[in-house]
Design brief:
- The complex is a heterodimer of chains A (505) and B (101).
- With 505 residues, chain A is mostly helical.
- Chain A has a domain at 273-505.
- Chain A is built from 20 helices and 2 strands.
- Chain A has helices spanning 4-25, 31-52, 77-103, 109-127, 131-149, 156-187, 192-198, 208-225, 234-241, 244-269, 274-297, 302-326, 335-366, 377-380, 382-396, 402-417, 420-449, 458-463, 468-486, 489-502; strands at 66-68, 73-75.
- Chain A has a two-stranded antiparallel sheet.
- In chain A, strand 1 (66-68) and strand 2 form a beta hairpin.
- In chain A, helix 2 runs parallel beside helix 4 (109-127) and helix 6 (156-187) crosses helix 7 (192-198).
- The two termini of chain A are 28 Å apart.
- Chain B has one domain: Helix Hairpins (Orthogonal Bundle), CATH 1.10.287.
- Chain B is 77% helix and 0% strand.
- Chain B contains 3 helices and no strands.
- Chain B has helices at residues 3-23, 27-52, 58-88.
- The longest helix of chain B has 31 residues, at 58-88.
- Chain B is elongated and about 50 Å long.
């Protein structure tokens, strides 16, 4: 029997995807497709909440995790927390898109259809516990984003962004699949639990070579998705060329989905062979932070700067696991690492979506994302400039904004694992936080203190209004960044759920 | 059944595909090379499935999924290539260098 309550979030979202297409055919104004999408996302939250608080509800007779389809699809506290994060971020991402698409006269119905289909893939990835489901979920996340990246059809940069993203995307998918096929061949299993059971002692057997290549290729495929250095080359180009709301979507939801897949597959499927990939995570984390930040230093375009910054932030997100593996932390001691990563992902979603919201609002007025054109922003758009400061300082990790708490739990988890290699990674992370502070503050200083360059139509810009949906998105993310900074316990419940995942080992 | 030959065939096809992706200039041929890589994956899955006599036929089912998803991806890819060809009158990957570091 199928547990429809557990599948309700996915089913409602799938229904919403169809409803958006149908509304697009009706003779109504196209922005109704966005309204339907937002309502659908809102409705999706209901079953996530009833599942999450199942124990205290009368009509809900189950508690703990629910396994379906022979253990291939699992709804537990960890997956529910991430589904909530995906839905919340998607809500903001849709809000960011509405004004942008309307004012530039882009196709709307198809856009929301693709975006929501991609979110559906992210929901599937959070729950999937076998290779087939994980692969289908991953492709559902990335497939629509190739098209969304090329949404500015007449623009050469957008075309280029789409093709680069597409080629790297399918290449990484093929590498991932080849790895999965070898893992399947050696263990004879597709479910994560089966692979884990089948991989005991395989490194000493005849097939160890095949298995090592399989594991490394699988992880490499995910490293492309989360744009970890050295697999990041597509990221800045795609981020710059794609429409800015799509960039926001890519840097938050698609990236988080990649992390979820990476963590699930590393810990649930390859938990017996940590020696194979542990050092890899350490190196990826250190390289992503360092290279991302160093190249971000010399960027002159805000979107590109945020692209490299998101690569560096991805490194920070990997730090707890790189350190935990280096310190040989296993079992329920991993709780701290999972707590840190999920907390970071939630806060990162707020501040990055907010930062891109500001970029969209300012870009819409100035028609430029070059830092030098943003000089003196405070003098003619004080509200936007203040929000720019808030989000950028939060990304840099300045108290009392939310970003500091993300960095704080990250360092705490690293120090809790307490070994030499973990300490070394903490030092790399600390140095990088300082480098990052430099380039974030460079933009803010320019916006607040420098003179307005000639040719900026200041009077005209003062007249312009930000689209109501974008205002709403900015208010939501600002509240999130400020309130979480002061009361971090608000999201600790969400991150607490991640701990249940660790107790499974 | 001799598994080794199938693994070597799969690996050779996969390497050929990677070589094609890296060296081909025409975007359509890059797409074809990716298809070659996916074909290698399918050979692996079916060979492993048959060799292990998997009662759930997991490998064969996976290869069906790979074929379906691969077809969808080629659809997306050709749409993007067509878009670029319309705007630039060429599908040459090397000419796409508007953005650098």
């Amino acid at each position: 029997m199928i547990d429809y309550h557990a599948l309700a979030p996915e089913l409602i979202l799938a229904g919403t995807v169809m409803a958006v297409l149908i509304v697009d055919m009706l003779p109504v104004r196209k922005h109704w497709t966005a309204v339907v999408g937002l309502l659908g996302l809102f409705a999706t939250v209901v079953p996530i909440l009833t599942l999450g608080f199942c124990e205290s509800l009368d009509f809900c007779d189950y508690s703990g995790s629910r396994e379906m389809f022979g253990g291939s699809y699992v709804i537990d506290a960890f997956s529910l927390a991430l589904k909530g994060l995906f839905i919340g971020s998607a809500f903001v991402a849709v809000l960011l898109s509405v004004g942008y698409l309307e004012s530039n006269r882009f196709w709307q119905g198809e856009f929301y259809f693709l975006m929501l289909a991609s979110v559906l893939g992210a929901l599937v990835m959070a729950s999937s516990r076998d290779l087939v489901t994980m692969f289908v979920g991953l492709e559902l996340v990335t497939g629509p984003t190739f098209l969304m990246a090329g949404w500015r059809k007449g623009e050469a940069r957008s075309n280029e962004a789409a093709l680069k993203f597409f080629i790297i995307g399918v290449l990484s998918a093929a590498v991932l699949l080849f790895g999965m096929s070898l893992v399947y061949g050696v263990t004879g299993e597709l479910t994560f639990t089966g692979i884990r059971a089948g991989s005991v002692g395989v490194l000493d057997g005849d097939l160890s070579g095949l298995f090592i290549i399989g594991v490394l290729f699988t992880i490499l495929g995910f490293a492309f998705k989360v744009s970890a250095v050295p697999f990041h080359f597509w990221t800045p180009d795609t981020y710059e060329g794609a429409p800015t709301p799509v960039t926001a979507y890519l840097s938050v939801i698609s990236k988080t989905a990649g992390f979820v897949g990476l963590l699930a597959i590393c810990y649930l499927a390859f938990g017996e062979v940590t020696t194979l990939w542990g050092t890899g995570l350490w190196v990826l984390a250190a390289l992503s932070m360092t290279v991302g930040n160093l190249i971000a230093l010399r960027q002159t375009n805000v979107v590109r700067l945020l692209g490299y910054s998101s690569i560096a932030q991805g490194g920070f997100i990997l730090v707890p696991f790189g350190a935990a593996i280096a310190a040989d932390v296993t079992g329920s001691d991993l709780e701290e690492a999972f707590f840190a990563t999920v907390t970071y992902l939630v806060i990162y979603a707020f501040m990055n979506l907010g930062a891109f919201g500001v970029v969209i609002a300012v870009g819409n007025r100035l028609r430029s994302a070059e830092i030098k054109d943003w000089a003196g922003l405070f003098s003619y758009a004080p509200g936007l400039a203040t929000m720019l400061g808030l989000f950028f300082f939060s990304l840099a990790g300045i108290p009392p904004l939310a970003g500091w708490f993300a960095k704080f739990v990250m360092f705490r988890s690293v120090l809790a694992s307490g070994s030499g290699w973990a300490g070394a990674l903490a030092v790399v992370a600390a140095v990088n936080s300082v480098i990052a502070f430099y380039y974030y503050s460079k933009v803010v200083v320019s916006a607040f203190m420098e003179k307005v360059p000639d040719g900026v139509p200041v009077a005209e810009i003062r007249e312009q209004r930000t689209a109501p949906s974008l205002q709403f998105a900015l208010v939501l993310t600002t509240i999130g960044v400020v309130v979480i900074g002061f009361y971090p316990t608000l999201i600790s419940g969400l991150a607490e759920a991640a701990k249940t995942f660790a107790s499974g080992f | 059944m001799i598994l080794g030959q199938f693994i070597i065939l799969g690996a050779a096809l996969f390497s050929l595909g990677v070589y094609g992706v890296l060296t081909r200039r025409n975007a359509v041929l890059v797409l074809l090379s990716v298809e070659l890589m996916l074909a290698a994956v399918n050979i692996n899955f079916v060979a492993f499935d048959t060799y292990a006599r998997d009662v759930t036929a997991g490998g064969q089912i996976f290869s069906l999924f790979v074929i379906a998803v691969g077809a969808a991806e080629v659809g997306i890819g050709l749409a993007i290539v067509l878009l670029i060809f319309r705007n630039r009158e060429s599908a040459n990957v090397d000419e796409l260098d508007l953005m650098k570091l």
